[in-house]
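Lab notebook, entry 314. We have the chain sequence and a SMILES string for magnesium ion, and the next step in the workflow is to get a structural model of the bound complex before anyone spends time on docking refinements. Request logged below.

Task: model protein plus magnesium ion, output structure tokens.
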Amino acid sequence: MTSAMIEVEQLEKTFGSGDDAVRAVRGVDFEVKQGEIFGLLGANGAGKSTVVLMLATLLRPSAGKARVNGFDVTSQANEVRQSFGAALQETGLDPLQKGFELLVLHGRLYGYDKPGAIQRANDLLELVGLSDDGGRRIGTYSGGMRRRLDLAAALIHHPRILFLDEPTTGLDPASRRAIWDEVADLKSQGVTVLLTTQYLEEADQLADHVAIMAEGVIAATGTPDQLKAGMGADVVDVELADAEEAARAALAVGDSAKVVGDEIRISATDGPAVLAEVMNQLRAAGIEPKGVSLTQPTLDDVFLNLTDGLKNDG
Ligand SMILES: Nc1ncnc2c1ncn2[C@@H]1O[C@H](COP(=O)(O)OP(=O)(O)OP(=O)(O)O)[C@@H](O)[C@H]1O
Ligand SMILES: [Mg+2]
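Result returned:
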């Protein structure tokens, strides 16, 4: 028995043909296990939505294979559609419809009777924090409220798999955090989530595994920590009174310290431990730092490094 809820193998999508062909997805592989949040991270045009649309059976792959909940996206599209809920990037929400009505309609489409659909709509409005707004027209909702309604609509039929295409793009930090909390909640209920994002912080916060996409391929994959570790070391910076004091400090700390102006800089795989050690050495030498900082590589660094690499390769 495999616990993979989403399996993608050498998936490709080419739009158009001949000279105008756009190779949006060029052989992508990944796997998402039951209960995991998987983040597909990439800039505009990387191919994220194209992957999601193929998984959601809304686009037909040009080559390769994908299975969702064990079902093939091409030959078992109906079973696949029963298996997931999706909040996609381009949703055509009717601005004149009320949030509550939309959810009731979705409920009916998924086979609830009228009282059942009403109950489900109310439960979901509460879940996404829109209980007080269900009676308002969607046209009057803020961007964050619309995304939360999208999320509620995606959850109508209790899907075990959720596709979220850039669920927080364009939202303010508070609304973004509200969506993160909801997604984390769903994960704790065992829902498997594939989300795309342009925000490195979002992938870092939410995702168990991340694949960084650029120009239709996966440039790197791993846990956020693995990707960051691949970037190399933490950096400890110690600021001193002047360059002379920095030279003395470097001597006290030993080989690993480099003098940079009135600072010393030490690279370390375990930054916090090294930071403590360095402070002890300086104290023993009677040196009082003006300030210290510990910086860790962020997914931003990983991302820029990779995408620069791709550009340099041509
Ligand atoms: N229907 C289509 N016809 C032709 N080209 C397309 C089509 N859909 C997407 N593309 C192209 O495929 C590439 C990948 O697009 P995609 O929408 O998957 O990117 P994305 O990573 O989702 O970007 P964004 O972050 O802007 O949403 C782009 O070059 C895009 O222009
Ligand atoms: Mg997209």
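Notes for the group: The longest strand covers residues 4-15. Worth checking against the assay data. The mean pLDDT is 89.
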